[in-house]
Recover the amino acids of this structure.
């Protein structure tokens, strides 16, 4: 891993350490919340100042569905700190087994509107990503939510603007690799969850990435992908929480440019993602 992602990782660890050292009052209910939402693919700011959460993430799936490497497994970790109400600072990192691919990100998410006074929840986010392809990416996020008693609905649009490749990617291009990167990536996700009890939530999530591939005759990254499946979440004792999503993935890869002799990827795949975390305060 190059010096740049090492420095970003150190920054993320410093953010987590500072967050845990920040003085706050004890939580009134240590089973009251998740790290933003009882969903896997939705991120939003919470309303509690001083909240700190850390989580471990494991994703596994067929090779065609995500860039998880030939082993099909991704391990990650996330730290989240809210210095004030409606502002969440997040650091995330993940690693794949094959090829030593690492991704790191930092993001700030702010709650612009809340349903109590504005009919909807509106969150805006801005962040930076060093992705698995060693590309520097600026990310913008818009999330809208609304609760109807025990039913919670969420919708997110994520815009990713690649700035350029890191040292490893530049080396691959210099050696003749023909893979290109989209000039802009669009990701959208919609979800709904239902609170069964103070401890359990169930929901369904739909996510779509590389949507520009539906209109680009030669999509650089393999075409649009759609993910749909159920999510279960549990608030456990002492601030612990767990979330899991199991989804089918459909790849619209008909316009993907293939190298000579390269077989077309499967149109269908599976993806599961499990998150286990702890609300420290």
């Amino acid at each position: 891993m190059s010096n740049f992602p090492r420095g970003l990782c150190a920054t993320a660890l410093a953010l987590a350490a500072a967050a845990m050292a920040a003085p706050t009052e004890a939580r009134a209910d240590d089973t009251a919340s998740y790290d933003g939402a009882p969903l896997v693919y939705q991120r939003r700011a919470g309303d509690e100042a001083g909240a700190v959460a850390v989580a471990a993430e494991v994703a596994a799936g067929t090779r065609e569905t995500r860039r998880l490497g030939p082993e099909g497994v991704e391990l990650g970790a996330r730290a989240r700190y809210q210095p004030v109400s409606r502002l969440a600072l997040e650091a995330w990192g993940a690693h794949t087994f094959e090829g030593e691919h690492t991704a790191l990100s930092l993001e700030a998410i702010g709650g612009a509107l809340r349903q109590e006074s504005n009919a909807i929840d509106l969150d805006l986010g801005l962040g930076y990503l060093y992705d698995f392809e060693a590309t520097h990416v600026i990310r913008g996020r818009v999330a809208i939510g609304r609760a109807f008693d025990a039913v919670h609905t969420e919708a997110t649009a994520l815009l990713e603007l690649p700035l350029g490749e890191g040292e490893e990617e530049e080396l691959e291009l210099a050696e003749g690799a023909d893979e290109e990167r989209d000039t802009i990536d669009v990701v959208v996700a919609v979800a709904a969850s239902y609170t069964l009890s103070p401890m359990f939530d169930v929901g369904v999530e739909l996510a779509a990435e590389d949507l520009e591939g539906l209109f680009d005759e030669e999509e650089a990254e393999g075409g649009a992908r759609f993910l749909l499946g159920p999510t279960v979440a549990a608030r456990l004792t002492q601030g612990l929480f767990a979330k899991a999503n199991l989804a089918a993935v459909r790849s619209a890869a008909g316009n993907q440019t293939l190298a000579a002799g390269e077989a077309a990827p499967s149109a269908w795949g599976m993806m599961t993602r499990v998150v286990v975390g702890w609300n420290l305060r």
